[in-house]
Amino acid sequence: MPAGSPPNFKIEILPPDISPYRKGNTGLEYVTTFDSGLPGPNVMVNALTHGNELCGAHALDFFFRRDLRPTRGKLTLSMANVAAFDRFDPADPFASRYVDEDFNRVWELKVLESTRDSLELSRARELAPLVLAADFLLDIHSMHLDSPPLLMCGMQDKSVAMGRVMAYPRTLVRDRGHDGGKRMRDFQDFDDPSSPKAAMLVECGQHWERNSVAVAIETTLRFLDFCGVADPAFMEAHLKVSRPLQQKLIDVSDPITIKTNNFRFLENYQGLEVIRKGNTLIGYDGKEEIRTPFDNCVLVMPGRNLAPGLSAVRLGRYMD
Ligand SMILES: [Zn+2]
């Protein structure tokens, strides 16, 4: 197993039964919109962008079962890559991240409007009008790493401000994403500083640990509260973590994008390690040395699949 892979990954949760949500009410499978009938924002919470990231599906199942409704505006609950999710096999749990390509690297108009096709692109084309119409988006993910949860806010100040109000999870990450393609959270207006629309991506912890579900639920409640559509009684009943939480912002520089078939880390990094001295060797890409560019460098989400074109790791610094 290459360095960077968890030697013993836990599988504490299995896929929930999402068949009750297949029909939905929008004409798209696994997409349901609740309309309060009152003026207010158009809010979207999405799960299963990656088919093997189960916590978001569990969180939406939790909300469906408890009849979560927006107090104003509209709330859409969607599950994106169900085709990949349907292939989940606990004996080979990493295999169902996607079917043809990463659903979270196709979110650019020039890609969506191209003639290129894949299972993920056709699903993204179905969901794109809803994503474009949303004022606020939360996209729920998890990680292969045993790392604390991360709220990924993209590059814009408006999203950093949103993360500060949500104040959960503890670690807020400002980053521009991957060289391999654009994420849904960075689509169009969400990444435009002149638009009030904003999106968040949450990494709820290790893919199959039970706690990732609790993190997904808590983050969604904080998000709905930020959007002003949360029912106070529902919040009171289900919020677990009292505020305020001391939050820390990590500013991430460019990702280290893998160039060769032989990338390796020197250690089995799990994420959020702080490398005190700048110019410390952390790995090799073929013969090229990978060194930290500055003092107190934070390793953000070191990759598991160390293949050319993918992000090996992102490097950041704590801003507070
Ligand atoms: Zn993911």
Q: Which characteristics define this entry?
A:
3-stranded antiparallel beta sheet, Aminopeptidase, alpha/beta, 11-stranded mixed beta sheet, 7 helices, 320 residues, 2 domains, 21% helix, globular
Protein described:
This protein is of the alpha/beta class and 320 residues long. It has two domains: 19-246, Zn peptidases (Aminopeptidase), CATH 3.40.630; 253-318, OB fold (Dihydrolipoamide Acetyltransferase, E2P), CATH 2.40.50. It contains seven helices and 14 strands. The chain has an eleven-stranded mixed sheet, sandwiched between helices. Strands 9-11-12 form a three-stranded antiparallel sheet, with no helix packed on it. Residues 1-7 have low confidence and may be disordered. Bound molecules: zinc ion.
